[in-house]
């Protein structure tokens, strides 16, 4: 199918004589409408700026010709003066034009050269002026486009706090038209807590600050509240005199909402983690109690039965007696194993004697297995806490000992417990290899993350530091709570 040809048509619209040139297509078969595509918008109305540009264009293109014409006019005028005023020298106008004297020719040529030189210089100057004007126009157009298309809301305010100019984004932020904004006071359109007093950006800029940036919730005249990052910079004239300020408003509503959602999610996850930890500790306590009570008692009864059988055997049953003694020894080993498992699940000493005693017991257990010396100081000697705080500090202590055994290669560990005022602190310091910053920040260090989260759940502080070759120090601080049976975990 052959394409329909396009041709340009002219439409005159408005009282200002603007002309819109369009491409006209043939009617489409289905719709029957004529499609007009604007290609140019030309204005026939002459403005003073257009007239000035036209004069500059003509002057730049014809300045040398003007210099030549002025030189010719001067030559004729000089000939006329010499033929009619100083006629005694050399009469005759035509003679003065064509064959003046040598000195006269020299003088006239100097003037002609000056005319033409001035014309060339003027043409060059006008050309540079035109280029500078175009550069200024392009720069102004670029800045205007940047200002109007900026993603942030922007406004220009003079020293009297009157709004001089705003961009489209700012108008969308305040939901007002340009006419409703220009000429109004800045605090009437978009205000905040910093608009009055020493925190006002205008006051601070006048005082000499070059750049101001702060977070603030701004309120428009229609009551709309928008959290923003506000940036203010000086607005000066060509002489460096302060005219006002340029304010940039970055709408961070989405970021604030995301931060709030993240905080809510983090709080919910922390509450869930605390709940899961409490449930796990409760299960450990029940399991430890059942192992200790049920299995321990059953093994004890079994051992008593074996002892009874041993005492009631005949004298000639030595082999059977040896077998029963072996079984009794195995039962003893099993009882010790049950007691150890029960203590590891939930040390009964922690509930019965308190945190200090439980930490001393755990340190003795470790000392019996590995070559590490422990120095424990507790002030006061018996630290009594609620169940949640006690088990949290004890589990952090256990995790710290596990890391020391696995990684530190330490021979000496110092533990300091202190209960003073409204907080309880625990410091664990070893003389091992020392943890590095990379290891502290490693997201795979789940043990460290677990300790930090346990302390955070109680509203406490967890600090970890180390120096290569000089050991590692853990500082833990939690709010002090009295021990209560209602808070048992």
Report on this model:
- This protein is α+β, with helices and mostly antiparallel strands and 489 residues long.
- It has five domains: 7-43, no CATH class; 48-145, no CATH class; 150-251, Beta-Lactamase (2-Layer Sandwich); 254-346; 354-487, 2-Layer Sandwich (Heat Shock Protein 90).
- The protein has 13 helices and 14 strands.
- The protein has helices at residues 48-84, 93-98, 102-149, 168-174, 186-189, 201-206, 253-311, 318-345, 348-352, 355-369, 387-408, 437-441, 446-457, and strands at residues 7-13, 18-24, 36-43, 153-158, 163-166, 190-191, 212-220, 225-236, 242-251, 373-379, 412-420, 423-430, 461-466, 472-479.
- A six-stranded antiparallel β-sheet has the order 5-4-9-8-7-6. A five-stranded mixed β-sheet has the order 10-11-12-14-13, covered by helices on one side.
- Helix 1 packs antiparallel against helix 3 (102-149), helix 10 runs parallel beside helix 11 and helix 11 packs antiparallel against helix 13.
């Amino acid at each position: 199918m052959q394409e329909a040809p396009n041709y340009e048509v002219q439409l005159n619209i408005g009282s200002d004589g603007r002309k819109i040139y369009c491409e006209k297509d043939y009617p489409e078969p289905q719709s029957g409408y004529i499609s007009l595509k604007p290609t140019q918008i030309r204005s026939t109305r002459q403005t003073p700026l257009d007239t000035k540009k036209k004069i500059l264009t003509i002057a730049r293109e014809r300045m040398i010709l003007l210099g030549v014409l002025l030189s010719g006019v001067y030559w004729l005028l000089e000939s006329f003066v010499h033929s009619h005023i100083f006629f005694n020298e050399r009469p005759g106008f035509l003679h003065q034009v064509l064959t003046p004297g040598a000195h006269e020719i020299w003088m006239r040529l100097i003037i002609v050269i000056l005319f033409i030189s001035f014309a060339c210089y003027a043409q060059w100057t006008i050309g540079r002026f035109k280029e500078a004007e175009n550069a200024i126009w392009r720069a102004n157009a670029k800045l205007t486009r940047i200002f109007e298309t900026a993603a942030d809301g922007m406004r220009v305010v003079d020293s009297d706090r009157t709004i001089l100019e705003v961009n489209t984004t700012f108008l969308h932020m305040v939901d007002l038209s340009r006419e409703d904004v220009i000429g109004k006071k800045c605090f009437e359109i978009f205000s905040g807590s910093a608009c009055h007093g020493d925190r006002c950006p205008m006051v601070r800029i006048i005082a000499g600050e070059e750049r101001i940036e702060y977070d603030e919730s701004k309120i428009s005249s229609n009551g709309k509240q928008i959290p923003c990052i506000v940036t203010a910079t000086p607005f000066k004239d060509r002489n460096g005199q302060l005219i006002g300020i340029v304010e940039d408003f970055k709408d961070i509503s989405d970021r604030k909402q995301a931060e709030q959602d993240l905080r809510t999610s983090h709080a919910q996850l922390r509450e869930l983690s605390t709940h899961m930890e409490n449930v796990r500790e409760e299960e450990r306590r029940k399991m430890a109690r059942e192992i200790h009570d049920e299995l321990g008692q059953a093994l004890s009864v079994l051992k008593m039965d074996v002892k009874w059988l041993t005492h009631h055997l005949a004298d000639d049953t030595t082999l059977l007696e040896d077998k029963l003694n072996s079984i009794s020894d195995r039962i003893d080993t099993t009882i010790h194993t049950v007691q150890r498992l029960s203590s590891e699940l939930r040390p009964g000493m922690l509930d019965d004697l308190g945190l200090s005693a439980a930490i001393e017991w755990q340190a003795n257990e470790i000392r019996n297995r590995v070559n590490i010396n422990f120095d424990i100081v507790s002030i006061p000697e018996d630290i009594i806490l609620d169940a949640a705080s006690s088990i949290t500090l004890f589990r952090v202590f256990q995790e710290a000992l596990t890391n020391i055994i696995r990684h530190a290669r330490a021979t000496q560990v110092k533990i300091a417990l202190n209960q003073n005022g409204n907080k309880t602190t625990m410091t664990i310091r070893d003389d091992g290899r020392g943890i590095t910053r990379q290891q502290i920040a490693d997201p795979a260090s789940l043990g460290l993350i677990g300790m930090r989260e346990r302390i955070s759940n109680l509203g406490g502080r967890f600090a970890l530091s180390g120096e290569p070759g000089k050991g590692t120090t853990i500082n833990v601080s939690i709010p002090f709570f009295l021990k209560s049976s209602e808070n048992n975990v």
